[in-house]
Amino acid sequence: MPTPEQWTALEQAARDAARLAYVPYSRFAVGAAVLTRDGRLFPGCNIENAAYGVTNCAERTAVFSARINGGMDEIVAVCIYTPTATPTPPCGACRQVLNEFGPAMAVRAICDGPDHIDTTLEALLPGAFGPRNLYAAAADH
């Protein structure tokens, strides 16, 4: 579980990342930041495309940023910022990608309003399929 200082840093990084979002279609700038077990933080923003199916969410951008920058020590937390009055949790696709790199991670969603969501990925994606399943299947054979 992140320290209060780490949560503060994650929240600020997520807000800062949202300012870099490329959102010419939705105008819905989302920022995210992930924290790895070794204490490194990686931000991400959503990047839209005219072919909506290839749009990338902020959470996935943060995960991919961590991977390309050598931060794939287990992800222990993610913070998502949305420019809304109430917090927005990650979409299903992001939940699945996050599960790949930190199935037990803490999740915080923040917004422009006073509310926030504090939960876990396990609560958001119960019964998830991921690396644990593959390793267990390999061990059985």
UniProtKB/TrEMBL annotation:
Active-site residue list: 59 (proton donor)
EC number annotated for this UniProt entry: 3.5.4.5
GO molecular-function term, one example from the UniProt record: zinc ion binding
Catalytic activity annotation: cytidine + H2O + H(+) = uridine + NH4(+); 2'-deoxycytidine + H2O + H(+) = 2'-deoxyuridine + NH4(+)
Residue span(s) of domain CMP/dCMP-type deaminase: 5-132
Required cofactor names: Zn(2+)
Positions of substrate binding: 46-52
Alphabetical list of InterPro entries matching this protein: APOBEC/CMP_deaminase_Zn-bd, CMP_dCMP_dom, Cyt/Deoxycyt_deaminase, Cyt_deam_tetra, Cytidine_deaminase-like
One family name in Pfam for this protein: dCMP_cyt_deam_1
Annotated positions binding Zn(2+): 57, 91, 94
Keyword list, A-Z: Hydrolase, Metal-binding, Zinc
Gene Ontology CC annotation, any one: cytosol
A biological process term (GO) from this entry: nucleobase-containing small molecule metabolic process
SUPFAM superfamilies from the UniProt entry: Cytidine deaminase-like
Protein's job: This enzyme scavenges exogenous and endogenous cytidine and 2'-deoxycytidine for UMP synthesis.
Family as reported in the entry's similarity comment: Belongs to the cytidine and deoxycytidylate deaminase family.
Protein name, entry field: Cytidine deaminase
Origin species: Gulbenkiania indica
